[in-house]
Model the fold of this input.
Amino acid sequence: MTSHDDTAIGRRGLLATLGAATLAAAASVRPAGATAPKKLPLTAQTTEGPYYLDLGRMRRDITEGLDGVPLEVRFNVCDTTGKPLPGLRVDIWHCDMQGRYSGFGEQGDDRSLAFEGKTFLRGSQLTDREGVAAFATIYPGWYAGRTTHIHMKVLDGTRAVLTSQFFLPDALSEFLYTQVPLYQRTRVRDTLNSVDGIALKAGDTVLGAVREERQRYVATLALVVDPAASPAIDRPPPPAGDMPPRPQGMPPMGGAGGAGGGRPMHPRALAGAARLKALVPPRTTS
Done:
């Protein structure tokens, strides 16, 4: 004999089963006129640049004790449907507070510093089940001809599905470079986001969102990738001799050191009202 409780449980089970079946059927049948979910745009590929090293050092903290303004970088890796992609390797590398890369010689404004064998501000992480890879680092500095940027690469095994750079807000960079002693230079930063050829070509998919938290900044960027992709990698040769590399997308800088084969001139830094206009984008009206 079936009890009242057994009947109630059976009814609830039947309703749950019917409900699940109804939801499944609804999901499989698209009403007339309905559109497919909009896909996310893929994150733009950019040049790898001349300073990549495949170290494979799996670590969250890449500072190696370097001083600088603390920055956490969080990548959310997903496909075009927004589905997280766990287990992919994310590499990150960027310059220090004075614009110098580890692992290479001829660094610094006068190209007199050597950092071969050093590994600061480089590291790798595997994305977790939510597709997140996070790094503890410092806010990067700048060097002539480039705006403030951080390099990243997403790999599935040994296959790179994304090689790109992301760009930090000019106003925040300007504040740090002029007010924090570790970042101050005798020269004014010559290239902003609005004139950097690589940033302009890459577009909005590589603009990081930055927020201030207690004693650090946090930069977040969604990396939307095609897991089956095998894009060609633009890999400039390492810098050598007196000629620094000209990044892909950057026009010749003209002057006596332009196409004639001499050392390229640094771009002229904006000043006054023109610089302020470039640092603070105009308000849009609805």
